Amino acid sequence: MSSASHPTIITGVCPHDCPDTCAWQVTVDPANGRAIRIQGHPRHPVTQGWLCGKVDYYLERTYHPDRLTTPLKRVGPKGAGRFQPIGWDQAMREITARLRDIIAEFGPEAVMPYSYAGTMGVLQGEGMASRFFNRLGATRLARTICSEAGFEGFQYVTGRVMGPAPEDFAHAELILIWGNNTLTSNMHLWPFIQKARKGGAPVIVIDPARTRTARAADEWIPIRPGTDGALALAMMHVILAEDRVDREYVRAHTTGFEALAHRVRDFSPAWAERMTGISAGRIVRLAREYAEARPAAVRINYGLQRHAAGGMAVRNIATLPALVGHWRYRGGGVLLSASGAFHLDKSGLERPDLLGNRQPRTLNMIRLGDALSLDPARRARAHYAPRPIDRKPAAEDAGPPVKALIVYNSNPGAVAPDQTAVHAGLTREDLLTIVLEHFQTDTADFADYLLPATTQLEHWDILKPYGHLYLALNQPAIAPRGESLPNSEIFRRLARGLGFSDDAFTQDDVSILRAFIEAQTHPTMAGITWERLLAEGFVHLTLPDPFLPFAQGFPTPDGKCQLFSQQMADDGYDPLPAWTPPRALAALPSRSLVLISPPAHNFLNTTFANLERFRQREGEPLVWVHPHDAVPRGIGDGDGVILENNHGRVQLTARVTTDVMPGALLAPTIWWAKLSPDGRNVNWLVPQDETDMGGSPTFYDIRVTIQPAASHD
Prior knowledge:
The protein is of the alpha/beta class. It folds into four domains: 3-62, Phosphorylase Kinase, domain 1; 72-143 and 346-463 and 479-516, Rossmann fold, CATH 3.40.50; 149-339 and 547-570, Dimethylsulfoxide Reductase, domain 2 (3-Layer(aba) Sandwich); 583-711, Barwin-like endoglucanases (Beta Barrel), CATH 2.40.40.20.
């Protein structure tokens, strides 16, 4: 057998919105260029040779018969999902002609991008797209749908969002998994947690539900949704009342200790018991266990900040390790995201200089329903104003109506809040909607033009993870399927169609990515070259070993942890850790319950939700109901139920279980609406409300009624 017939192995990296950002190896049959195997990279210290149960089947997704492989043009009414094939040249001529007409009549701000993390790559994500929209002068998008509230709260305390490396969780003496279902959404952290456990570290899960992770842990502490900030305040109360403070660390590396000590006197464990549903005694013991560990590692995630006071909740939790000095020790502290350890200069990649002196408006992606309204008062509400000192404009200053929507790396027709308003906007006949996609999603059904994009197996990119410290290169393993093109090439063609001759739109992908790496000057990128990435696939940041991000200070104005934050005061917030109840706990209606909607185990946002294998694994759209709430309402396990509030209604199947707190409902998501029983998912119930910080959504801060479907009028 000749060497030419041997399979080729290409190194790449998973593109999905997951902290693990797994390195992979793709085996390709050189005889036909077809990928025949995908596996986790065995030498990646976090991936360790295995992929999750979703990405294990990435080849199935790539070669799926429903994959979009040719440009399509709408032929039926919006939302009907009826299209006919159209060539790329004709599609580009028609799209750019319509864009030119819109810009001539309404200005470039009438064009709006909508994207998020369908790919986390720096180029196929926002790199070339940013060049295009900057050159155009389009409306800018505040990408707030996931993590902004928590990021704002965390960095008010520490100055930058980073924490212990995942590998260093193995060195902890106590692990708190707080609002994070690790085995579903961060599974490559689990082996390091298990190492700590084998060394005697207890693993405690704080969560409204007994998740897969809670069942695998040593203890589950149920907590009412949205009350995590109250628990953190009560833990501070105990730590200070019992003088469990690391005085040396506090004196050297914090500011505002005395003010904090005075503040938390009022937040006793007895008070927190009323808020959280956790007994005062368990709160006291938890605070002691946390303070005594050397160190404790805390993993938090984005669910606990998806309520009205989510930013402050994260701010409170992020304050804890400084009080007891856990940042001193390997594995100590709080990990929300590792992304702050990456100091990447993206100016040459995204080219903000192409804007010139223009300052387009910025609209908040979670208010897409308002943004697409023809009512200027509603468009004014969609403007991004994330802090108390920020002000939304008057209706007359809201800017032009959105007349063209370009969607890529997202599925707003399923994921955005207030789906009634979103679908009303997407149905507008005067709205030009262009969707770049792999499959015909809920959003794609509303497209005027549906453009086939490549998957990660088919293009170049670089991935910055947010759950570990290895920068990774993705090399294409196979040729693009059919006529699909990388996002970068689609935006190049749009740019050419609009007559943009800038060099930004003539560079090929490899040249752009090489220049991006060569432009990095921060010491953490020392020694990370294009050649190393090509040869090795992934490279660790240049950091001390062990990496102790805040052992000797903080990247804040005074170099200290901000127990009292003057910046918060300047931005209109309470400068100290504080308690604001979530909206769902205020003025409780007698028959309504709090609804949260964390990720389904077999989906990743809406990715994978259309594939039969994963739908069969997940079963059907469910809602978990505690027997205490189910029995009085006549709801039995397996019954069809209706969830309803003043924003909408949705039909689900009840799972009656003690795995969820009484008074709370849990609906694993995100199901495609058109694949759901009544053509809706839980986001029909979510308002366009914003969190206290960052303008993020309040997905887990809503109240609904629930009743058997058979009894619903």
